[in-house]
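ok trying this again, last paste got cut off
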Amino acid sequence: MRYPKFLEDGERIGLIAPSFGGSIEPYKTRLESAVSKFESLGYKVIEGPNTRLGIGIGKSNTPKACADEINDFFTNDKSDIILSCGGGETMCEDMPLVDFEEIKKAKPKWFAGYSDNTNLTFLLNTLCDTAAVYGPCVGDFGMQPWHESIDDLYKLLRGEKLSFANYDLWEEDCPDDYPATGIYNVTQKYCQKVLMPDNTTSGEIEGRLIGGCMDVLSMLCGTKFDKVKEFIEKYKDDGIIWFLESCELNPFSIRRVLWQFEQAGWFKYTKGFIFGRPLEYKTEIMGLNCHEAVSGILDKYKVPIVLDINIGHISPSIPIISGSYAKIAFSDNKFEINYDLR
C-alpha cells in the first residue's frame, strides 16, 4: 500500500470538484471560509477550475472536465494534498475518463472526501494501491470554530495523529436557519450497537480497511472498475475490515446491496464490519430496520459487526484511512481506531 507524504507547514492544498462544487449556498460560503482558514494557517490554496462551478448534471461540470481536473491534480505538481469540494450524485460518470494507470505511476497524494467521493477513495485503493482518507469535504473546514472531528482530520493529514475515538455527541438534525459556518448541531449522546458471535459487547478487530458509501459501491460492483477480488487476495494475510455507510438506502436497499457484495465475492477474508449510522436510520419498512438489514445478511460470517459509529453522512465523522491496516477496539459505546501504515 502506498501512503502519501503528510502535509507540512506552508505547503499547497489542492481543491477539486469531481462531484458538487461550491457554487450555491451554503456551500459557497463554507468553501470561502475554508480557503480563508487554510490561508490564515500559512498554506497556499490551489483551486481547480471546477471548484466554484455548478453547470454539470449532479456535479460541478461535465464528466470530461471533472476527470481532466482529477488527472491534472493527481499526476502533476500542482499541490501537496487534495481535498474534495463536496459530495453529489454522478461522479461515477467521471471514472471512465480518469487515468488510473498514470495516477498509479505518479507520486501519491492524500485525497480526502466522502459520499460520492467513494468513487475515488475506493478506486485509489483497489486500482492504484494508494491509501486515501474517507472523511469530511473541504467545506467543513470552514466552520467556526472547528469541531473536534475536523481538528482530527487536519491532524491526520499532517501526520500528527493516527489514533481516534468516538465523539460524545452526534447531529440528529440540522435546522434550516443553521449558519453556513456554524459548528455541527450535536445533541444526541453517542451510542453504538455491537453484534458479536458470542453475544458480548466488546472486542477487537485487526485488518486492512476498505469501503465507503454503499450507494456508490453498489454502482461500481460488477463493472470494469471492480477489482476487489484482486485487492483482497493481495491482502488476505491481513484480513479485511469493511467500513460501510449509506445515504439514500432504506433498510431493504441496504439488505439488497449487502447481498450484491456478498454474491460478488467481496466478503472473502473478512475479519469484521463497521457501519456508520445510515442517513435513513429512522426508517422501518415492513418490520425491517437498518440494523436488521445488516444482521440478516452478515451474521453468517461470525465476525464482529459494529453499527452506528461516527462515519458517514451523519456528523461528526472519524477520519478513516481507507486502505490502511487498522486495529479497532470497542466496548460499552466506546470505539477506538488506530492506524498502522504498513
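PB: full thing came through this time. The chain has a mean pLDDT of 97.
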